[in-house]
Amino acid sequence: MILRTKKDAFEKELQTDPPKKRPTQRIPLPNNSMFVLGLSTNQKWLHSIRQDKRLLTEKTPAELAFEGGRVSLTFRHIGTFLKKVDNTTYIWGQGATGKTENDMQPALVGDPTETEGMIHAFGKENQMSIFDWNSVYGEGFDVLHFSVRTP
């Protein structure tokens, strides 16, 4: 796991002469381990699990398990609800465009435009240390499953 300060959280230090390098933390995570990132750390630090490019002969048997695959999960508590009516799935709540059941909208399954908007919102959240949730996520998204645009 690698943690590095977000650019805007380290802005003053980047403007010095010579500019200082953003701090980086490397945290070894053994197989089946879990790293819990707190809210204030997530706010100021970028985090990633980088691919291990060492030769196979340099890895332990545990590191070779599951063909070297790695998983990173993010959990958020966002009250969003689904309801099926006459073969149509509707969505409403904090993360959707309709905030109440009376304002529920048909869920968009795999809609590439909605998916792209949500991914851009994730990117803004990940890059900014001072993040206004309402301005980025406040209007909500009605997409259920991501899809990939093919050129």
Account of the protein in words:
The chain is 23% helix and 20% strand. The protein is of the alpha+beta class. It folds into 2 domains: 2-68, no CATH class; 80-145, no CATH class.
Q: Helicity range of the residues?
A: 10-25%
Q: Strand percentage, roughly?
A: 15-25%
**Distance N to C terminus:** 33 Å
Report the order of strands and helices.
Answer: EHEHEHEEEEHHE
Largest sheet: 3 strands, antiparallel
Kindly name the structural category. alpha+beta
- Please tell me the overall pLDDT: 83
Gross geometry:
flat
Q: What spatial order of strands do you see in the largest sheet?
A: 2-1-3
Low-pLDDT residue intervals, each spanning 5 or more residues: none
Number of domains: 2
Number of helices: 5
Radius of gyration: 20 Å
| Overall strand count | 8
Write the SSE topology.
Blueprint: E1 2-5, H1 11-14, E2 24-26, H2 39-44, E3 45-48, H3 61-64, E4 80-85, E5 88-93, E6 105-106, E7 108-109, H4 112-127, H5 133-137, E8 143-145
Parallel strand pairs: 7-8
Antiparallel strand pairs: 1-2, 1-3, 4-5, 5-6
Keywords:
151 residues, alpha+beta, three-stranded antiparallel sheet, 5 helices, 8 strands, 23% helix, flat
Summarize the structure.
With 151 residues, the chain is an alpha+beta fold.
